[in-house]
Specification:
The complex is a heterodimer of chains A (281) and B (273). Chain A is mainly alpha-helical. Chain A has twelve helices and no strands. Chain A has one domain: MetI-like fold (Orthogonal Bundle), CATH 1.10.3720.10. The longest helix of chain A has 38 residues. Classes of the chains: A mainly alpha (281), B mainly alpha (273).
Chain lengths: 281, 273
């Protein structure tokens, strides 16, 4: 109740302030301009100006570097960009999560593997994924790889930690009991280790989802000709010599869409986690 | 698990061994790669000549001495680390304060809830163009971007920390007549510390991710983000590798620092291991 009230209050306050001519509209775009940018980016066309008032508005819009117009000319729509970014995020999660979970379980399960692999992991994990983009590009060319590899890497590095702790903290008594009952190794792993580690892993997966989105958008902002990051900055930052001509209305539409998508994916991950660990309660 | 000396020595030996093997394998791969790896790379628009895809230690050392002697690397480290630290301190302070507040007061939680959820799922890097418009190309945008990123994570950590205080403790304290302030200082804050520190370690990693992108805006030379960009634009692989390695080493150093602070601040707790 109070929450929706505070949400409504801010939307109202923003509409009032942005229309009060306190700030320049290029800096704080009026709420209706954000709505217009949103509709235009979803529909994919700009309605022809009809009335004089709208003509004036359109003219005004063109004045501050026509970000929406450029995007529309390139055939960019909000939903298509979101789908592209979501596909990259999904790829990163599908490839990176199993890799990270395997490494984490291996290090948590075997003391020897932990001793040998953990130092390497700590060293590699310290490198921010986005720093790798240009290097990957030199190796694998100017394709999709330099956007996907940082996401995969970020997801994998994130998933190692919960899998490691989950596997290491399996109650010792469970293992002793299972061994005493004569469980062979694969049964021990399938029936004791994986179920016991899964709550931690599923909890960590929610972090990985958030980090995958952030890395995907960052990579697209730096070097990509499609996706949400590209929509927000209107062209790769590296390509454009670090000059952004972004229209704040587009940026805000992009941020709102990304927040909604991130929230939806998290809700999905949460309900899947609740379903998968139902036995724990 | 009883940190016996021999076990510790085995661990140390194995760590040195594995890192040593990694270093040697890299050196061998670099030597083997010379002449075998492509020297010309097509970059979408043009060819790049004389790329050392795996630079041998020799060129890394040369490039390293040049970067250090010219003051580029040391200057970049100072500038970037300064931005990260400033943004981190600002963001952590704001985030922890708000998080403690929303954790303690249900009304604050209802009030802030939607905002926290919104910010939590906004990839912070997406705010960069907006910050540039609002705060200009200078230092403020970069530091604020890091601070925003850190604040969200720290806020969630502090909030969860306060919420994880067992109800019994609070009931016992109030039954014994402890006031609001005493309860907060002696029970809530110490019990929330582990959560707060865990979130700060995550936030520190994110702060370094942010700086790599933030420093592309109004890019000026002494900064690690720009060093990486320049190295990528030429491209000069030894510079790239040194830049990546430097950022990695800094992240590692900051992480170790945060961890030792964590251990110190929670020394009063009994540990299982």
């Amino acid at each position: 109740m109070l929450g929706s009230a505070s949400l409504a209050a801010l939307v109202l306050a923003y509409t009032a302030i942005s229309n009060a001519h306190v700030f320049r509209p290029e800096v704080v775009p009026p709420a209706q301009e954000i709505a217009v940018a949103f509709t235009e980016l979803v529909v994919g066309t700009r309605p022809p100006p009809v009335t004089e008032d709208q003509q004036h508005a359109a003219h005004h819009h063109h004045h501050s570097s026509d970000h929406v117009g450029t995007l529309l000319q390139q055939g960019v729509t909000l939903q298509a960009s979101l789908a592209i970014t979501a596909a990259r995020v999904l790829f990163g999660l599908l490839v990176g999560a199993p890799l990270g979970i395997l490494l984490g379980i291996l290090m948590g399960w075997s003391r020897r593997a932990d001793d040998y692999l953990h130092p390497m992991y700590v060293l590699l994990r310290s490198v921010p994924p986005l720093a790798l983009i240009t290097y990957v590009m030199l190796w694998l060319g100017h394709g999709e790889a330099h956007r996907l590899i940082p996401i995969v890497y970020a997801v994998a590095a994130t998933m190692v930690i919960p899998a490691y702790h989950g596997a290491r903290d399996v109650a010792f008594t469970y293992l002793v009991a299972a061994r005493a009952l004569g469980a062979p190794r694969w049964l021990l792993i399938r029936k004791v280790l994986v179920p016991a580690a899964s709550p931690a892993i599923l909890g960590g997966f929610r972090y990985a989802v958030a980090i995958a989105w952030m890395t995907a958008v960052g990579a697209e902002m730096l070097m990509s000709e499609n996706g949400m990051g590209n929509l927000i900055v209107g062209g790769g930052l590296w390509a454009s010599r670090s000059q952004t001509k972004a229209d704040p209305a587009v940026v805000m539409v992009g941020i709102l869409a990304l927040a909604a998508a991130g929230w939806a994916m998290d809700a999905l991950a949460r309900s899947a986690a609740a379903r998968l660990t139902r036995w724990a309660r | 698990m009883n940190g016996a000396a021999p076990a510790l020595r085995t661990r140390a030996t194995r760590a040195v061994l594995s890192l040593g093997v990694m270093a040697v394998v890299y050196g061998l791969a670099a030597e083997a790669g010379r002449g075998r790896l492509p020297d010309r790379v097509w970059l979408g628009t043009h060819y790049v000549e004389n790329v050392q895809l795996l630079p041998p230690y020799r060129s890394l050392a040369e490039e390293g001495t040049f970067l250090v002697e010219s003051g580029i690397l040391t200057g970049s480290i100072a500038v970037s680390a300064g931005r990260v630290l400033l943004g981190f301190v600002l963001g952590a302070a704001a985030g922890i304060l708000v998080g403690l507040w929303t954790g303690r007061r249900a009304r604050a939680e209802y009030l802030a809830g939607p905002w926290v959820t919104f910010l939590q799922f906004t990839p912070a890097l997406a705010l960069l163009p907006l910050y540039v418009l609002w705060f200009g190309y200078g230092e403020i945008s970069k530091v604020l971007l890091i601070a925003t990123n850190v604040a969200v994570v720290a806020l969630l950590g502090a909030h969860q920390g306060v919420r994880s205080v067992p109800r019994v403790y609070l009931d016992a304290a109030s039954a014994l007549g402890a006031g609001e302030r005493l309860t907060f200082r002696k029970i809530v804050l110490p019990a929330a510390l582990p959560h707060i520190f865990a979130s700060l370690r995550i936030a520190l990693g994110l702060a370094w991710v942010t700086i790599v992108v933030a420093e592309l805006i109004d890019a000026q030379m002494p900064s690690l983000g720009y060093l990486l960009t320049l190295a990528g634009a030429y491209p000069r692989v030894p510079t790239m590798v040194i830049g990546i390695g430097t950022i990695g080493a800094l992240v590692l150093a900051f992480d170790l620092l945060a961890m030792s602070l964590h251990v110190r601040a929670t020394r009063w707790m009994r540990r299982a291991a």
